[in-house]
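Sequence, structure tokens quoted for completeness.
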Amino acid sequence: MRRSKDPRNKRLLAPLHANRHEQYKRKKHSLKPHQSQSYGDVVRRTFFFQLRLAADNLRDLMLSPIAIVAALLGLLRPSDPSWALDRLMLFGRATDRWINLFEEVDKDTPDHSGQTLDDLLDNVENKIKTKLDPETPAEESSWASCFEAFQASQQSRK
């Protein structure tokens, strides 16, 4: 189907395109630059990203057969055939926010509600740091400093 060159179409579609452009600009500027991070921070983010990818893949693997069952269940209710699939979509959106694959949920914003996989990983990271060095508060230590301290202790043994 070809688009007509009717000027009314351009006038009607202009706000949609402008809105989409504004959303893109807002998202582009809302991404936090990670330029001044240490090697340890980059390794940490990469490791967490790999864990989030694994969680996302596991979720997709589980949802695939469930979606087929949901569609079949929907066919059994002619009055509302999409009821099960709609619930599955809501669950999928909620797990998308929880997994936070591409760091879209910023936990420093006031509208951050609910936990994400990052919060769970941060908690595990703090527990590990506390076990490694009980005297240093987990908030003050970083993987990079732990790694540097480990390297220094290994070199002093030689």
